[in-house]
Amino acid sequence: MTLRDKINASLKDAMKAKEADRLSTLRLINAAIKDRDIAARGEGEEGLVPDEVVLAILGKMVKQRQESARAYDEAGRIELAEKERAEIAVIEDFLPRQLTEAETEAAVSQAIAETEATSIRDMGRVMAALKARYTGRMDFGRVGPVVRDRLG
């Protein structure tokens, strides 16, 4: 079962259970995926985007909502921050388990060894290797400085 199928099945379940908040978040997810499908067709690609792209979309959606929740907290809009966090919980149901700090360190070490990276100029290759293997399972915004420190 593809990730897209799981999302659609959850959407149907949310409709039957009349879970309005969950349903609206699932519809937002579907809309983002369909937008990416349309963009891919415009670039000449055939069919639907693969699960790796869907994972990237979901990761981006989580990051956007985390930033919004932080902004709402700073502005004292607690109810809006809670709504964003509720959406994050729904989106994260479809993301794979995040790597722990130790697993992330091991993955970075392995990627550096595999790409035979020796300097900061090799950072792009290391990050590409990590993204190919761990999309949706690690926060690349946090991993970038770790890689930079190791290579620098």
Helix amount: over 70%
Name the shape in a single word: globular
Mean pLDDT reading: 90
- Tell how many strands the DSSP assignment holds: 0
Indicate the radius of gyration in whole angstroms: 18 Å
Q: Runs with pLDDT <50, length 5+?
A: none
Alpha-beta content class: mainly alpha
How would you describe this protein?
- This protein has helices at residues 3-17, 20-42, 51-74, 78-92, 101-115, 123-134, 140-151.
- The model has no long low-confidence stretch (mean pLDDT 90).
- Helix 1 (3-17) runs antiparallel to helix 2 (20-42), helix 2 packs across helix 4 (78-92) and helix 6 runs antiparallel to helix 7.
- It has 152 residues and is an all-alpha fold.
Give a short overview:
About 75% of the residues lie in helices and about 0% in strands. It has helices at about 5-15, 20-40, 50-75, 80-90, 100-115, 125-135, 140-150. The mean pLDDT is about 90.
Topology:
Blueprint: H1 3-17, H2 20-42, H3 51-74, H4 78-92, H5 101-115, H6 123-134, H7 140-151
